[in-house]
Amino acid sequence: MPTPPEPLTFQLHFELDEVTPAVWRRILVPTSVRMSRLHDMIQAAMGWTNSHLHAFTVGDARYGLRFDEHPEGEFDEQTVTVLQALRGHKVFTYEYDFGDGWEHTITVEAEFRTPHALKFALCLAGDNACPPEDSGGPGGFEYFLDALADPGHEEHDDHVRWNGGDVFDRAAFSLIEVNAALQKVRQRSSQGPENW
Fold it and tell me: Which of 121, 171, 93, 169 is nearest to 11 (CA)?
């Protein structure tokens, strides 16, 4: 009887568009996970709080929650695995919070087979802190940072209160914290890896 192939893993690099300095992460992802679970992994790795709608665009296909008035032709992200969705595509996009419009470019940097399947995604590297939720997209984020840094800014006090203090460390990134968050994504799943 033929031996089944070893599990396939993708090395993904995702970067937040239109933000400087770049906010990016590099993670290993089991290709058997559903696109909905990839969303959870991106949220954990970036530091978002999963408070808004999202969608993936892979080639001409869109994968999302199919919530409310979703676009015609959108596929349910819970019914397709990463491997099925990517089908040879090396670059795709992930949009989070349609109001703020945070777009991420995701690149499949490598793919390889391993003797043992990953039990959760693993972050290899990254740089810089994710913007706070509801900060208004790339333009709003810059405005937020300017207001926070300038005590004379007309909205400085409002932004300090909203941020919970007058410091936002743009360069903050902890590989240990990101990997701890990624482990929690796997622990939240009560199903087997094939149903992630």
Answer: 121
